[in-house]
Amino acid sequence: MMLLTGGLGYIGSHTAVELLDNDQDVVIVDNLSNSQIDVKDKIQKITGKSIKFYEGDVRDADLMDKIFSENKIDTVIHFAGFKAVGESTKIPIEYYKNNIDSTLVLLEAMKKHNVKNLVFSSSATVYGKAKSMPIFEDFPLSASNPYGRTKLFIEEILKDVHAADPSFNIAILRYFNPVGAHESGIIGENPNGIPNNLMPYITRVATKKLDLLHVFGNDYETHDGTGVRDYIHVCDLAHGHLKAAQKLENNPGLVVYNLGTGTGYSVLDMVKAFESSCKVSVPYVIDERRPGDIDTCFASPEKAEKELGFKATRTLEDMCKSSFNFEVNNK
């Protein structure tokens, strides 16, 4: 049985579907700070299977003790956490407190209940401004914003936990940029308020829920001046979590993988691809750079392919069409 913290969020919900479709039992805890309760029913509708759900905060030690006491958990996938780069520069204390405290409470509960398999939702932001591309897992680590530093600090905590108790099996997954939605159009990226991520911003402009896409900076050292990122379909990413959880069954110790495609696209590349794929217009305006953003970031996916048997298969067109389909279906 797998426990997903933050499992009703964007990546968590798609991973829950992937796990259920592969005959895994799923328990979810989520405080609904950036997710909606109806996602639970949507996951069950897609899969035809039930999940056990607890509403609450991972920082609540009594709740975590209750969850581990009531369920035979063997693996935890830890998604819960604040995740907006720009916001983290404005409220860094809240980011450190939420993201790090939740991980510490979770680890204490796991240790108490002798649960030793953990998949951690990390981020490519832990590489900071890498000196070359693509980015390999053994590159030096740093971070250019508080969000990234929370992920970096948690990675260090996990390394210390494993060093102190080698029976812990931990897979650190460094995501690049998840986009897209489930092919059903029932679940997708649906943030509360103005989106922080590019694709839901594009889809809301395309459906006229928002007037303009704000492109943050056009003076980066890239082919068109806008930031370049490695966009991976969320359903591919979800499959990577299944592969990582399966890897932990063989007691690998602590392992680290990039989850990306190995291809970088700029913000304006994404806008043009979306307009072409979905036959809509996405008007945009150039704004100032956001603090903490970097020029270019894309993965080397080789290690995940070699050791996990994981390879992203969905195309940029798949990412655009599924995102638009979800937005249209969820007016």
Notes on the protein architecture:
This protein is an alpha/beta fold and 331 residues long. The protein is 41% helix and 17% strand. The strands form 4 sheets. The protein has a 7-stranded parallel sheet with strand order 3-2-1-4-5-6-11, with helices on both faces. Strands 12-9-14 form a 3-stranded mixed sheet. A two-stranded parallel ribbon has the order 7-10. β1, α1 and β2 form a beta-alpha-beta unit. α1 crosses α8, α3 runs parallel beside α5 and α5 packs parallel to α6. It is globular, with a radius of gyration of 19 Å. 50% of the residues are buried.
Provide the fold topology.
Layout: E1 2-5, H1 10-21, E2 26-30, H2 38-47, E3 52-55, H3 61-70, E4 75-78, H4 85-90, H5 92-112, E5 117-123, H6 146-164, E6 169-175, E7 177-179, H7 198-206, E8 213-216, E9 228-229, E10 231-233, H8 234-248, E11 254-259, E12 265-266, H9 267-278, E13 284-287, E14 296-297, H10 302-308, H11 316-329
Characteristic terms for this protein:
3-stranded mixed β-sheet, single chain, 41% helix, alpha/beta, 7-stranded parallel β-sheet
